[in-house]
Write a structure and sequence with these properties.
Blueprint lengths: L9 H15 L1 H12 L5 H28 L28 H19 L9 H23 L5 H5 L7 H19 L15 H20 L7 H29 L4 H15 L8 H19 L1 H5 L7 H19 L18 H32 L6 H6 L1 H6 L25
Helix pairs in contact: 1-4, 1-8, 2-3, 2-4, 2-8, 3-4, 3-5, 4-5, 4-7, 5-7, 5-14, 7-13, 7-14, 8-9, 8-10, 9-10, 9-11, 10-11, 10-13, 11-13, 13-14
Length: about 425
Amino acid sequence: MPDPNGPVDTAATAWVLASAALVLLMTPGIALFYGGMVRRNNVLGVVVQGFAGMAVVSVVWVGLGFSLAFGGTNRFIGDLSLVGLPPGAANPVVPGIPLIAYALFQMMFAVLTPALILGAGAERWRFGAYVLFVGVWSLVVYAPVAHWVFYPGGWAAQWGMLDFAGGTVVHITAGVAALAIAISLGRRRGWHDEPARPHNLPLVMTGLGLLWVGWLGFNGGSAYGAGALAATAMVNTQVAASTGLLAWLALERIRYGKPTTLGAASGAVAGLVAITPAAGYVNALGALGIGALAGVLCQLAAGLKRWFNVDDSLDVAAVHLGGGLIGCVCVGLFATTSVNPDGDNGLFFAGSYRLLGVQAGTAAIVAVYALVVTFLIAAVLNQVVGHRVTRRQESLGLDLSQHGEAAYDLSTAEMDVNAPQPTPIAAR
């Protein structure tokens, strides 16, 4: 391991900086992905929430969040020693990379995580309440969990938890928080009676494309160097996304008779989520299995919201909580030290049940913590500022009621294609 005060590993630093840019791309990606899935009069409401959340978390991360996640020596929460990213401070996790570069990379994870949550409250979450929620949640939920898992001295890391790129820290926390928000906000008007179909599937697929590309940096960058481990993580990411997409479409064809565009997008994201904690610990065959499991199980989980009468608008809990749990548990099954000597062997590679127990136990503790604290934050904010838009605002749509704008200019009547058209000048 390099000396904390020694020379900078410029190659590793360049890799991390480039990966940070790719991860940043994921937040606009999720904004477009969610924006295409909602109804036409709510698309800007979702998009601007994603971008506003990105700004809020970036400021909070530099001011306090990074220090709480990676400062000090406490096993449960960081201290204030890294507030403001002090120049010359040593990197507590990857010494060869400057602290400010590592903080930038981790900032993009912190930015993305609450952006995932907004899909659960789409079409009814007040803009101001969401912005306040994001700032508070990133400090009291995301930062402590990052300290537990990503910081080498955190209790989960000390216990032996393996989370390569954030299956627990990002996806389980976001998925559980999404469930809490969906319950706190209540169901949309007419949820049982009026199907809320996606208004723009090409926009969904554009968002998916940005997410898919960014995820290569998300997982590959977590190797903190452009070597064999990074290449393995990126190959596993691509493979799991592909098998997740195919498995979702195959099950959809069996259950409903037709594979859908939305199903393809959802399956790919499910595979990406599930491989995130395992990307640097499993081989390509393991990634195939993880992606396929996620494509099938996350689709089945998406139907549970009807059973429990919970309006998770865009199936955030099913895909991110479900996929995160699948990935974390699968590390305990498919991990192998032939891929990463710093990891451990899972049950299918002559390992013991211990790793499987650690993975499942940590995931359960994180889920309970995130669920309880998110409910508390939502309850307090609802009392202080009001969490949900009024019935009239919901009927009007968030675009006009919250922002005074419309995504599409529909004021001009569409041209009648059967009406006589003027002859172009060039043809006269």
